[in-house]
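Hi W.,

Here's what went into the run:
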Amino acid sequence: MPAEGSLASILARHRRDRTRLIDILREVQAKNGHISPEAAAEIAAGLGLSTVEVEGAATFYHFFSARPAGTYAVYLNDNIVSVMKGRAAVASAFEKAAGCRFGETTPDGRIGLYRTSCIGMNDQEPAALINGVVFTKLTPAKVKLIVEGMNAGMNVRAMIAATGDGANAAKLVRAMVKNNIRKEGPVILASFRSGAAVKKAVKITPEGVIAEVKKANLLGRGGAGFPTGLKWEFCRREKGENHYVVCNADEGEPGTFKDRVILTERPHLLFEGMTVAGYAVGARKGLLYLRGEYAYLAPYLESLLAGLRKKNLLGKRIAGKAGFSFDIEIKLGAGAYVCGEESALLQSAQGERGEPRDRPPFPVQSGFLFQPTTVNNVETLCAAARIIEKGADWFKAMGTPRSAGTKVLSVSGDCKKPGVYEVPFGLTVRRLLEMAGGPDAQAVQIGGPSGACISRGQLERAIAFEDLATGGSIIVIGPGRDLFEVIRNFMEFFVEESCGWCVPCRAGNPLLLRKLEKIMSGKGTPADIIEIESWGRIIKAMSRCGLGQTSPNPILTTIQNFREMYESKVERGRDFLPEFDLAEAVKEASAVTGQVFAASDTEQSHE
Amino acid sequence: MSKPKARISFTVDGKKCSAAPGQTILQAAKDNGIYIPALCRWEGFKPAGACRVCTVRVGGRYMAACTQPVTDGMAVENDVPDLQDMRKALIEMLFVEGNHMCPTCEKSGNCELQALAYRFLMLVPRFPFQFPARRVEPAGKKILLEHNRCIKCLRCVRGVRTRDNKAVFGTLRRSRDKKISVDQVLASALTDKQARQAMDRCPVGSILKKEVGFAVPIGRRKYDKEPIGSDVEKARG
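Here's what came out:
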């Protein structure tokens, strides 16, 4: 038998199953602090892969590293709300206290500092993950204590000052995360009696379950709004060895965190939604693809799954229904926004780089392990369970005629009451801002960076599929903020998170960012606004998946809604301004030689 | 399910065409003598939809012709000015994303990126050159990887495999840092024929066979004689 904890034992425990590569890499990273070239080669040999395939997967995800990441690996969120709440001071406090810069480890290898994309804590920023443990509302003073703790060799979990509310305080969670539930609606956040949906579902036929969900007009809550009942019907009809239910709990859109709260407080509702879906489509297995950032919830969720098995709400003959078997496995991601795209998620779940697939075939035809699969959002599955519990008519009575039910929104940014709000569809943005205590916003980002940035003149618009469709991320941008900085932060995010597969997204987004920076620097002309719009439209049209098809939105929607802001930045009446800055270009040479280079006749800059 | 028809009909820019069910738009167009420009595609490899140069428009929606199956009654827009300009933009993006010095490149005249640039009458890219710092890397005993020219078409990743079906080439990292790499052991085991094949399948001059070069002089190479796509169009007669 291979030694406990050795690579051989990790491989054996995962049955040398190539589709479990990400699970294996997670364990190796956690154990060794990195995935060395030797480890990659050994894993490759164990799984019958070439080394470059293992390295390919290992270099795709944020939370894997080829070099030792540090005994304590600090991942500080760099999204815009973190910036608004004081990220810069926190970051420099980390660098000062630790004695290394971001992207590096301390010389002794103890502490590593890294930036990362949104970790789903926008209502309690600045936040960071340290060895997977969440630290919220960081301040320079707190950072000093944390670094002292790390230098003293403390256990990361012991550095948490106090646990958060609700299940965040549960023994298996013990996170300092807060739920910040500001408004409990009747569908998702209302209390739920375990078994209420499944026991009802098994009394009707799978077709009957699908019919009820269709009747309720449940549309996918991830943002795209595909009818859930129809998706289930397509999946059920497809022939395959196995059918699968996959819950997309990879909420990575900057500013969204509502799935985290649902997973913390209403996990039973979600598990029943998955079970009901399994019954409807004829699946025996469900996967909960949980983003790596939420790994701290996994032990707790596992314990709940064990409880459901004991109560016969998972396993064989569920709720006494002959022939109905279903179980749920948790699959963890490892830090990649694009894995929220359903086909990328499936690739990741089966041990690959999280790169989207071409469609057709769609996941309902060829999903997890290329079998018929329904991929649904956390909130969608919860709503489906509730529809079975309470009926389609009850559900349809809420919301608007086209958008039935409620929507859970994650509200953050410049508002007094950031947190989670479950509201009926049709609510105006103005009303939401009043509820959240941010009525004087200059702009509101609806649906995260991939959504739309709206101005004050549009506050009467409604949260609904027919107006402002959103996965639920709402970022309030208060007066006095430089909106350009927000746009730049979003574009940097897309540049970083592009999987790099297709040309327009990989090569185009950096060009948009550069052009935006040119305009921001005051060196733009009216032609630059025309060009950046045109380039953005090309990237949207030509990109392969939803990431590239929406990545120009921060620029395009602000040009549409805040055109005067762009116009005030460019020099009118001039067709051309040189972007080239001689002094900047020869800065290094000047510093070395002490020679003076004139940027222009009037600007002479030297020591 | 009703039995699929033996042939289905569709149009490209209004021209009536027919196809076998299951064919992609790109294959079907080719069979009808219509050239849809493409860069990452290689006959016999699984389509990747990576370069997006073959993007067509159907009912206002954009789709890659190399991955999208043709359906009965489909009206495909292909050779229309705005779409051609967007394709040209992709070619231009590739030129500024890497470092492409055609006059000194072993693949000049056989390079599909260069050939498409000529076909699209690209003079100078509309985008600013990025001048990334990239390297030339030995990849096993037989080949070099010239990363300056790599366009990540994934042909090598898809098509160069060992006898026991292991990938010789792979991709590292993501976003603009995405990079092609090899399994050094497997790459060293490539035969001369396989190394030659890898080089020939690379649309640009990124995979180079060591110790040979410029066997055919520039000026007498494939696209020096006629523009890319001519073979398809000639077949139409």
